[in-house]
Amino acid sequence: MILRPKSLSRHHAPLAGAPSTVPTAPVPAWLRRAVADAQNLAGKEVADIALVAGAAIGALDAVVRRDEKWAGAWRQRLALAAAATTAKQAGRVEESLALRDAVLLTKPGDDVGPAGRLLLAWRRLATRPAEELLTEKNLAAVLEEFGFFARDGEVVSDLAGELRQLAVGAGTVEMLTGAFMAAERCGFGRAVGAWLADVLLAQRLGWAHAIPLLGGEAALGSHASRRRGGPALVTATGIEMDGEGTKELLAARARAALRAIDLSAELERRADKLLAVAPKLRAKAADAVVERLLFDDALVASEKITGMSERGLRRLFDRLQTLGAVRELTGRPTFRIYGL
């Protein structure tokens, strides 16, 4: 189930066209240089890369805590990117458009297929409250979405217990490494490790919703948290951290945070345009459509929105596209999909 947004009534004034009063803080030039430099790991210590990753996450935290009206669309757009990368790493041919189609153009209750389920896994992370994501019930569901159907309850229970220990007893760096190691020990691989690491970070920082980050990192090594030989550091909580693997994960976290910040700035500009033209809309339930566009990655004209027929919704999308407030995301003459 995808959670739907709360009412925008408390944001009624911006809906009438006033732009956001909170300016978008630019990423400092030194941080962009440091994140780019962190891709070359040779000769760098774990502490050096951890400092860059921490600064990048700090900048991302400032965006998250603004709790903008477009944050739902932002998280879901990042979920789509993570699903596309995950599908490619799994050897699948579906790219972003095909993943969207699998979910949006499938009738409710029908199977969205293996690729569509990957998108549902990352949407689950982006839309459900972060505090609920690591329950045994939710873990079992997301593992099925990642394609692990034959896991027994004991494996899920053990994984949930290990994640609880990481959440309360590990430092931030070892928590990141430990999430990948826990996924690998259970045979779930790096995509699940990335999902778990993103959730643990959100819970550690007190975010209401997790942000899909590491899943979108194509350069993330297939066994980034596994020892590659040479000395390892055993932490106070017993997690054995390989230096090179840990540096790789931290560098990926920094890149992902910067990518998410840049996407937030792009979507903020598009959302401000949508909110600016909202008063010009005369269609019934137009406010509800604007609300959904700010929450979802994309919508189709057959979407069930109270007070709107399919024909009326299609006409509204055409009007919004003419005003430059939304984009048609497929380039197709039929089965069209719209979003920020």
UniProtKB/TrEMBL annotation:
Sequence segments annotated as region (Disordered): 1-21
Pfam families, per database record: DUF1403
Domain of life from the UniProt record: Bacteria
Designated name of the protein: DUF1403 family protein
Gene source species: Nitratireductor arenosus
